[in-house]
Amino acid sequence: MALIACVVTLTCSVVAIASGMVRYMESGHDVRALFRYFTTISNIIIALASSFIIPFAINGIRKKRFTIPKWLSMVHFSGTVCTTIVIIFALVLILPYDRKFAIENQNFFLHIVSPIAILVSYFMVESKYVYTLKDKLLCLIPFFIYSIVYLIMVVLIGKENGGWKDLYMLNTFAPFYITTPIGYLFAFLVTLILKKASDILNNRRDEKLFESWNKDANPVEVKIEVYGLGRFYGLSCDNNDLSVPQDTIESLATRYSIPEDELFNAFVKGLRHGIKEKEARKKGA
Q1: Which residues of 262-272 are buried (b: 16+ CB within 10 A; e: fewer)?
Q2: Alpha-carbon torsion 213, 214, 218, 222, what sign?
Q3: How many CA atoms lie within 13 A of 156 on its CB side?
């Protein structure tokens, strides 16, 4: 599911950016101007994150266990937050005053289709990392940086002096020193809501996984299964690419009231036997 989600996300982001570039070239505009839009930047972030996740997803299929580093999870989440802000801005702020810029022609894909696809696919890529307040603020760095550049180009420099048009109506309904803090608060609320929703979905997945496990399994049977998992890793994984599925072992220990050390020992024993068997096969070949 993670592989499919990231391939779809990457495709949507690339198509969104490419369609914008084609539209600009057909209109005779400088393509570089496309990168003044937060929409473009958001899609670039999510495209990079998805392209990095794809190899982990492929490796997860091989190992039968999908994991990504926390930094990559945060980049992926950051891109999702940014694209979610894009679709909300497009529908709430831009659509009532400029329908064409909000959802017509190529902008329908940029502002609606791509963000929705990215939002849906984010919830399909499981990430059980706990984000601290600092982590959540770090995920908003692209938004903060863009807002500062936007303030400089729109307010300090101004369109008449070679700056940018007030694309997101920062100074339209109220002075920028009022709308900017509101925008920061709004972005942070989006971050909290998306992460909370993701945590709820992950917890539900864990509950379904626990329910699928045999309730009547005894400790010996569980240890045999964990041993077999370790042996599978030893046989199928490169010796320099071995890992211990700590979260799975901890969940099994909790589910069946077995000391974690006993399960870790069973896994390591299976891992060692798998490695030895793999090396013996190579020598025999």
Answers
A1: ebbebbebbbe
A2: negative
A3: 7
At which residue do the structure tokens 């979610």 appear?
Answer: 84
Give the C-alpha separation, 178 to 195, whole Å: 27
Structure tokens at 132: 């601290």
The answer to whether the CB of 118 falls within 8 A of the CB of 45 is no
User: Which amino acid is residue 85, in one-letter code?
Assistant: I
Q: Where are the alpha helices (DSSP H) in the chain?
A: 2-26, 38-63, 70-89, 99-103, 106-108, 114-124, 133-139, 141-151, 176-212, 219-236, 246-256, 260-284
Contact 107, 216 (CB under 8 A): no
User: Is the distance from CB of 165 to CB of 159 less than 8 angstroms?
Assistant: yes
Per-residue model confidence as pLDDT tens for the chain (285 residues): 888 888 988 888 888 788 778 877 777 777 787 888 888 888 899 889 999 999 988 888 877 778 888 999 999 999 999 989 988 888 877 777 767 766 666 677 777 877 888 888 888 886 778 899 999 999 999 999 999 999 999 989 988 888 888 877 777 778 888 888 999 999 999 999 999 998 888 888 877 877 777 778 888 999 999 999 889 888 887 777 777 788 788 888 888 888 999 999 999 999 999 888 888 888 775
